[in-house]
């Protein structure tokens, strides 16, 4: 179960359901004094008590607040006077979620979020959707923490609520059960961008910025080591292609294109996405080809070591209604067929594990390293034919920040002898390890040779650089 935000979350088992319960007439008890029952159809009042019957949960929880949108339940140890902030917060988050992703059920009963909060037990949280029987066919989140839980509105408390709702979206939006991408992005990667967006969407700017600063440095070991899911995949897509719109469009495209099955009257996805399909559907959501971005973020293999680029080719044929244009953020990769040489080579040679060939291998987990750096170091790419580059990518190394380039000059040459300055950067900072910077510059002249002169590094006597690539946008 979830111990801290964005680490581990227990998804409720997706059990096939055949019948839905009718809750009419089960709650003669009133809501809290002074709180009007903001429910248009009183026959669908949520029950006053709810007996937990899942995992190790066996509490009889009591309804403390409800309206058309949510029903909140506390166990007897929750400090009711200090936890009332949960009513408005849960209500606001669920309302925003439905605004972005649509309804989660056909009526007041199924479309409501049932939120169960515990104190002093069940340190973590889990979700379920109205399409499953494990939690009585309800959209629900069930979260517990320590003995001071829900009393101080901590970042963990607000974020874990949104985190669990993220799993309801992936496992029950568009009236389709299952999460076909869960095996790819795991518990936290989708939840990270969802938590960021919800805070942004409901106006919690300070919390939004906190989530950004927390998630940007995070790396995971899948599908390869040092994968920065938030920094190099989800956040750029979110920020550049419509924010909440692109997140919702991904689920829209899944619901209308990915294979489903019907069992016991419940529609569910019939299988998991493979990584190539994952890239294809996100490209469709963004409207641009994200395969190069994926290559830089993830490498060429999925978790099982399979080539997702081959899977992507098959996915394009299998799902032809998913269409998109070229990604102008990268454009034509001129380095794909270039050669490279450097003024000072790694002591073990160009083809060694940290030699100059690592500069152009399209792998952010490798790097070029040279010792005894001097401020006249340069790397030169020679293209197969002259091209007018107007953008380049540069990626920091994996360890000591003092080895990073700080100032540099990009130059172009027709003959490799006479050079023209194309771009100059000074006092640059790489905030993260393996950080990708994509830099545009103005150029309409076709050059066969391009040179990167690193005039200053961040202070070390050594120099390292993971990747340097040229583009024509």
Description:
- This protein has 473 residues and is of the alpha+beta class.
- The protein has three domains: 42-194, Glutaredoxin; 217-318, no CATH class; 332-472, Jelly Rolls (Sandwich).
- It has eleven helices and 19 strands.
- It has helices at residues 85-101, 108-111, 155-172, 182-185, 189-201, 205-215, 229-240, 244-257, 275-286, 291-298, 308-318, and strands at residues 49-51, 60-66, 70-74, 113-119, 124-128, 139-145, 260-263, 266-269, 332-333, 339-342, 368-370, 377-387, 391-395, 405-413, 420-425, 436-440, 447-457, 463-465, 467-472.
- The strands form five sheets. A six-stranded mixed β-sheet has the order 1-2-3-4-6-5, with helices on one face. A five-stranded antiparallel β-sheet has the order 10-12-17-14-15, with no helix packed on it.
- The radius of gyration is 26 Å and the shape is elongated.
- The two termini are 45 Å apart.
Tell me the major beta sheet.
6 strands, mixed
Gyration radius from CA atoms, angstroms: 26 Å
The neighbouring-strand order within the major sheet is 1-2-3-4-6-5
Under CATH at level 1, the class of the largest domain stands as Alpha Beta
Head-to-tail CA distance between termini: 45 Å
Order of helices and strands: EEEHHEEEHHHHHHEEHHHEEEEEEEEEEE
Can you describe this structure in just a few lines?
The protein has 473 residues and is of the alpha+beta class.
